[in-house]
Amino acid sequence: MSFAGMMLVALVVDAAFGWPDRVYRRIGHPVTWIGRMIGQLEAWLGAEDQDDAARFRAGTATAVIVIGVVVVVAVMVAATLPGGVLGMVIGGILAAPLVAARSLHDHVGDVEAPLSAGDVDGARQEVAKIVGRDPSRLDEAGIARAALESLAENTSDGVTAPLFWGLLFGLPGIAGYKAVNTLDSMIGYRNARYEWFGKFAARFDDVVNYVPARLTGLVFCLVSGRPGQAFAVMRRDAGAHRSPNAGWPEAAMAAGLGVRLSGPRVYGDRVSDEPWVNAGARDPEARDLAEGLGLYRRCVFAFGVVLAVLVLV
User: Fold this and answer.
1) What is the pTM (predicted TM-score) of this model?
2) Average pLDDT, whole number, for the chain?
3) Chain mean position to CA 186
4) Which DSSP state fits 276?
């Protein structure tokens, strides 16, 4: 069975259909199923009156159990698939909900539409659904910047990394990655509650995203129309980013569009003084968000072409 073919089917099915709202309302989504397991294990294991070492052990146990259960289930499902093209297609359909190509495009598009129409308040409401910073303090440039940063980072987390691990290990690879990423999304925070409980999950997420993040940045550079300049900015600025991985696609996106990203931002009552990415460029505008979505579509298309070539060879 071709894992490349399986991932190609998954990408095409997700891009075409996504995860319909009516299905979500009836049964949820694989990520919400994983999320419920994480929440239950935290309730059982993660008492907040534990010392730091105990909370680290509890968080590590939570991560190991979640990843183990998800991978074992995926291995069992994969073992039931028929061989040949039929098994590849069925496996791809089962893997499709674990790729977020369509939903990411739709969420960022929901920000771009009101922003392009001059509806800043509407754009604030939509960007609040995809970023953690205080939307009330964001002007047009801040909204566009936040949405572009989310688009760049989540291209790696939601598209490249699932396809990468699925290409290597099939259903267990893509499912296991999604478990790791969901753990990081839920408990991988540096705050009083999760600093120690989520530390293992956050670090493991950094490890599994190391290659996909750099691969995403490289593809952004190649499809940007200014590959040399984009690659130079990415190589110069990615390492200064607060994240060991997000800086690569973010810097490539910034250079590809000719704008600056990152920089200072507000989370609640806390100001995070981050360095700029592509610092000498202008602030992004609504039109840059539309162009960023175009860059994203070209990147996803390039992944599809690579997978198709791998199937043929």
Assistant:
1) 0.94
2) 94
3) 13
4) E
Instruction: Quote the number of domains for the chain.
Output: 1
Task: Residue 233: give the domain boundaries.
Answer: 3-312
With 0-12 / 13-18 / 19 or more C-beta atoms within 10 angstroms meaning exposed / middle / buried, residue 311 is: middle
Position 269 scores a pLDDT of: 61
CA distances from 117 to 123, 182, 213, 289 (A): 9, 34, 32, 13
Q: In this model, does residue 117 exceed pLDDT 90? A: yes
C-alpha angle with apex 235: 233 to 241, nearest 5 degrees?
85
pLDDT tens digits along 46-57 = 887 899 999 999
What does the alpha-carbon distance between residue 217 and residue 118 come to, in Å, rounded to a whole number? 30
Q: How do strand 276-277 and strand 270-272 relate by DSSP bridges?
A: unpaired
Give residue 268's pLDDT.
Answer: 57
Q: Is the dihedral of CA 116, 290, 101, 178 positive or negative?
A: negative
